[in-house]
From TrEMBL:
Pfam families: 2OG-FeII_Oxy (PF03171), DIOX_N (PF14226). Its cofactor is L-ascorbate. Belongs to the iron/ascorbate-dependent oxidoreductase family. Residues 180-291 form the Fe2OG dioxygenase domain. This is Fe2OG dioxygenase domain-containing protein. Residues 191-213 are annotated as: Disordered. Gene3D superfamilies: B-lactam Antibiotic, Isopenicillin N Synthase, Chain (2.60.120.330). It comes from Urochloa decumbens. One of its GO terms (molecular function) is metal ion binding. InterPro entries: DIOX_N (IPR026992), IPNS-like_FE2OG_OXY (IPR044861), IPNS-like_sf (IPR027443), Iron_ascorbate_oxido_reductase (IPR050231), Oxoglu/Fe-dep_dioxygenase_dom (IPR005123). Keywords: Iron, Metal-binding, Oxidoreductase. Residues 192-201 have a biased composition (Basic and acidic residues).
């Protein structure tokens, strides 16, 4: 454990420093421009296959050719940096069940070296945490960003369905496009790693703080964009942690728990974390595409049939899942409670 001494919020014991993870050797890259080009049937089919393979293997891949304009990405990054540079008391005005928070992730004692804005996303864009506290230019640029990223997310979700060979290519995207979709936007700011004298060196390993502890994302899909500062790591099937080289011009996609359920476990909800070891701040923005609270989630019948009727998860509503997940710690396997006996056999 590391106890930082500056400021009240820094008086928190952060999870211990660990050995640096090797870089992820080959991350699947999917160029969306080939998948959406007019008359690009073969390109689209190849992209859909690559997406499905990556979702099965890692639950993670990178998207290029996404069509979200670079100047919009730059404006989001600048507006986020301006928000996090505000005085602490001004940032805290955006607090509440949603809004600004620092160090505390969820409500069950998880801590990270991070501050963030967590916003509900409605059909029109980001729901303000509290009107006067959310700087209006941040709200506006985030709404524009959400519209662009939601469109791109739906293209990716269609490719996933096509890659699985499902007849209904809109089966996942419809959940995120629904007017009641429970989608969220998180803007994370990881401050630069504290000076060496503030962080004891453990056993000769590099100094790393847990920015965001290991977890899977609960929703259907997470679409992440960060600045060029490293920190994101994913866990491979064998449990090895690997570092994802940052790429500020691309997006990274995570399969979430809900998609693991819908695909009867064929797509893998990827375990990931952020370790802070850079002298520069990391800023990341994640769109979490979720279903409406009333939505009944269960493995899609077509995919259950392909496994000889073996259904790995029971049916539940997204509201039920969130209620159950709310009681868990960040690192817990939240899907365990919804598994059927067939899941472990
Ligand atoms: O900030 C990041 O790069 C990833 C954070 C994350 O995994 C999350 O907010 O769910
Ligand atoms: Fe995450």
């Amino acid at each position: 454990m590391v106890v930082l001494s500056k400021g009240e919020l820094e008086q928190i014991a952060l999870p211990a420093v660990q050995r640096a993870a090797p870089p992820l050797a080959a991350v699947t890259e999917v160029d969306l421009s080939t998948a959406t080009a007019a008359g690009g049937g073969a390109g689209r089919a190849a992209a859909a296959r690559a997406v499905a393979r990556a979702c099965e293997e890692h639950g993670f891949f990178k998207v290029t050719g996404h069509g979200v304009p670079a100047p919009l990405l730059a404006r989001v990054e600048a507006a986020a940096a301006a928000f996090f540079a505000l005085q602490q008391q001004d940032k805290e005005k955006a607090g509440g069940p949603f809004g600004y928070a620092s160090k505390r992730i969820g409500c069950n004692g998880d801590l990270g070296f991070v501050e963030y804005l967590l916003l509900g996303v409605n059909a029109a864009g980001a729901a303000a945490p509290s009107a006067e506290a959310s700087p209006c230019c941040l709200r506006e640029v985030l709404d524009e960003y959400i519209a662009a990223v939601r469109r791109m997310t739906c293209t990716v979700l269609e490719l996933m369905a096509e890659g699985l060979g499902l007849d209904d290519a809109g089966v996942f995207a419809r959940l995120v496009l629904d007017g009641d979709s429970d989608s969220m936007l998180r803007v994370n700011h990881y401050p630069p790693r504290p000076e060496p004298e503030e962080v004891p060196k453990h056993g000769g390993h590099s100094r790393r703080l847990t920015g965001f502890g290991e977890h899977t994302d609960p929703q259907i899909i997470s679409v992440l964009r960060s600045n060029a500062v490293s920190g994101l790591e994913i866990s491979l099937r064998d449990g090895t942690w690997v570092a994802v080289p940052p790429d500020a011009s691309s997006f990274f996609v995570n399969v979430g728990d809900a998609l693991q359920v819908l695909t009867n476990g064929r797509f893998r909800s990827v375990r990931h974390r952020v370790m802070v070891s850079s002298a520069r701040p990391r800023v990341s923005v994640i769109f979490f595409g979720g279903p409406p609270p009333r939505e009944r989630l269960a493995p899609l019948p077509g995919l259950v049939d392909r496994e000889g009727g073996r259904r790995r998860y029971r049916e539940f509503t997204w509201r039920e899942y969130k209620t159950s997940a709310y009681r868990t710690k960040l690192a817990d396997n939240r899907l365990g409670y919804f598994e059927t006996a067939a899941a472990s056999s």
